[in-house]
Task: structure prediction
Amino acid sequence: MKILRIACLLAVLSILFGCSTTVVTLRYEPTTPVKTELDAKPVAAIGTIKDGRKEEDPRWFGAIRGGYGNPLKKLVGDRPMNETVARSLSDALKERHLLASGDDAVFRVEGTIQTLDCNYYWNRDAHAQLLLNLFDAKSNGLLYSQSQSTDNSESGAGAGIFGDVNHLAGFMQKTLNQTIDKFFADPAFVSVLTGRNVSSAAGVAARLEELENLRRRGLISDEEYNAKRKQVLDGL
Result:
């Protein structure tokens, strides 16, 4: 009965207070110590970042939810999420002394937001998945193509209208930043940006893309994909 009374109270409060929206600025901060390569130069500019989520509001990225999963507190960015991710990628390049202006860029980074959302229902969860492509700025040749993802969760106690939007927003920011940092931990990605054996990196990108297609079509298992991907990267 006590649980039922609490649920009824939360339902009444939800109706009284309605759904609120909080505007949050998500900014990039490294989640691991930044390793600046000795041969790092300002070589890369950010191109088009697409939002593949198909949300009605392109600024939306999460919500604190009530007992029926209904959004009580919505979280939106100060700009569309594709612009937020573009800014974060730009800041990540700048942290590593790799960011160049559009005219001076040797490489162009483009990509797609495949997943970007967070929720606080009984527990907090945040998910981010980005696909990034590296192009030769002059020839438009594809040098790298890979998807990275992060799924985080932490225990809560059922939030409802009492959930902390700032905590959830910080959880989302951490998840996005971890995903971006995974690209800079990828030897194939770094080898292109630092000019190390670019032709080899292009071949690696093509091989990785081929492996991804095989896995997507169910022709190889996840275990086989991971093992073969490691073999390709170890050959750099």
